[in-house]
Amino acid sequence: MPPKAKAPSFGSQDYWDQRFTTNTAPFDWLSAPEALDPVITEALGSIDDAAPEILHIGCGSSLLSQHLKTHVRRAQQVHNVDYSRVVIEAEELREMMSMNGNVVACTRWSAVDLLDYTSLIGACDLSKYSVVIDKSTSDAISCAEDVLCSLPYAVSSKQRESTDRMVEVELKEIPVHPLELMAVHLALVTKPGARWLSLSYTSERYTFLEGEPTKTEEDGTGNTGIPDPRLLWTVVEDPHTTFHP
Ligand SMILES: C[S@@+](CC[C@H](N)C(=O)[O-])C[C@H]1O[C@@H](n2cnc3c(N)ncnc32)[C@H](O)[C@@H]1O
């Protein structure tokens, strides 16, 4: 019997590194870059920010990274991130060559693992971005394994009041769904009122944002020890669009 075809490992960095090494041409998942124009224009028009910073997560080799420049005054307002250094270096070089080395005309590029908050805040300033663009990146992230997080988790939705509480808490690890963890991490680098615009295969992606948030401890963590993403993001209007209060 022939061996079963294995489903691609969309949640594995090795898969993406290998794919971007062998497929070097630009490729857009789900839609052409222009398809997001109406929601991007609406989001940028609804926020009170004269020079909004856009965080394009899991940019891959999408042409959207360049198209986003049409929505801002300065190319540097667009920050493209992906955990595959292969694609970040290739796309940064492609842009630099097309702009004849004019750095000011180029967007920013960083290799960032969205499931590792130290990686994210190593490249992205806290509370900086007004709009997050996610074209099928949540789909890939949803395929990743749960992430083992040590408690007390270093990221909380409120300032911890004293270090005393931290030594009282039992040290342990819990598995956290990758998309929930990314939602918590994205709240670190977005401004209050920012929009997370997500185009996904399925409207079921964000069911973890439904319902009432769990009761929180004084440091903002829920009973799991990880901030409840429902305290940070609210789904609005279209199921593909989320809103940061
Ligand atoms: C389905 S592709 C979408 C690419 C691009 N946004 C598009 O529309 O064509 C998913 C992308 O997410 C990236 N990705 C997956 N997990 C990631 C993670 N933990 N941190 C950063 N990027 C990730 C992959 O490298 C890949 O480029």
UniProtKB/TrEMBL annotation:
Protein name (database record): Uncharacterized protein
Species assigned in the record: Macroventuria anomochaeta
